Fold each of these.
Amino acid sequence: MTQKAHDLHETQNIMIPRSSVAEATDNHSGNVSITLTDIGSFHEDALSRKLHPHLPDETLKAIWRKKRRIDRITTLAGRYLVLQLLRSKGYPDTYFNRIRNDTYGKPHIPGGPHFNVSHSGTMVAAVFSESQRVGVDLEHIRPLDLEDFRSCMQSHEWDRLVLSENPLKAFFDLWTRKEAILKADGRGISIPLGKVDTGPGEVGGIAAQWHVRRIEIRGDYSCHVAGENAASLSDLEYIPPAQLENPS
């Protein structure tokens, strides 16, 4: 087993504070930063006004075409988290204005730092790195017919899932690990989830190329971050709803 496959299997738990802002560090040399928030009672009009100077009209129109209010707000909030992360690292807003979708539909900053966003339920997460490709996947744990997703798992993953004490949680933990890897890779859904083997014996293929960290948010969510290097996540911060809606 390669060292990278071992690191993928032996995930590190990282707890994100829920009730207060985590202490910021003066050293921004860390490779990966993450921030997240519960959108709570956000107003989409307020978020839209904050982002309007930075997003192309076609992007805003596409967001407003989303039928569900929760989808509009989480999309806006995700973009705003990215803007906040860029600012916290000293990047001018012009970098945010340069965000474009690549050929696989993944938002990125051409020639700039790396970021990724995920949202589920009322939670939104954004991950950022100046030096490596990163991906994040966040899922609200909810009832599912797991048989519908059997093809998304390797046989050994499925066996481990059904034998676990909590198969539903085990499923979402596997799902978010796979999705984080695919989002970091950038090719997303063009690679079937069933092709991503997260087992300890994986020595080739896409999964062996990435390191994964589990982010513990709260019991009803599963979240993983994937990156190219084994460095620990740094500059962890929790942005509460009030700070997101009324940034200083």
Note: The chain has a mean pLDDT of 79.
Amino acid sequence: AAGAVDTAALAAGAVTGAKLADGAVDGAKLAPGAVTTAAILTAAVDGTKLANGAVGTLKLSDGSITNAKLADNAVDSTKIADGQVGTLDIAGSAIDSLRIAPFGVDTADIANDAVTTGKLATGAVDSARIANGSIQAEDLQNDAVRSAAIADGQVGASELASGAVTGAKVENGSLGLADFAAPDGSGGVLVGSVPVSLTTWAPGCTPITVPNVPGVQVGDRVILTPDATLDPGLIVQPLLQPAAGALSFRICNVSGANPLTTTGTPSVGYVVVR
């Protein structure tokens, strides 16, 4: 009859799994601690079966939490030990400017040639950032170099284009004999004086040729200035130079004396122009 077999009628171990109907054993029928590890099927315990906070660190075996066990966004910075994120753990382009601390990028972090013109702020490159001797002509814009940028005495003859210096560029009263005298071919100019040793002068002009004046060329012109000891009856007449390496001119007796006799050895200063 229904209910005829009570607990006392059952021998120990008499109720096997086969005697239990599906779903016959609910939580109330289980003694505390009755469900052992062997009684639980693989993967039978999902998140709904775990009480909040029920699984502590000691319940997890090393390496048991795989990527598949982690929910999206489950691992925040507090879960990562310091220094554990390596280069290979970072996705390409994952680190943008917001992820870099101020002054976090130093010289060693920048690849050669990585800093292009577009990366430089306006005015970022001052003179301290430019290596000495690295600015070439093609780096300068037209009209970029003003007079204030040129050190005194730095523009030499080789820097001047032909015809660049006009009269307007020359300060009044600044030119001396050496500035317009012809070069002597040895780094000097053809400016000097020669002695006049003759003391007897026939009427008319006497040609004078002074040898060994290096640098004089055929066709050169001369400016002559006698000193004050030259007799007033004599005048000096320049010539277009007929020979190289010598100075030629005339001294003319205009006194009317025949001959004119002088004393001393006056000198004649010369400037050769070409």
Note: The first strand starts at residue 191 and ends at 195.
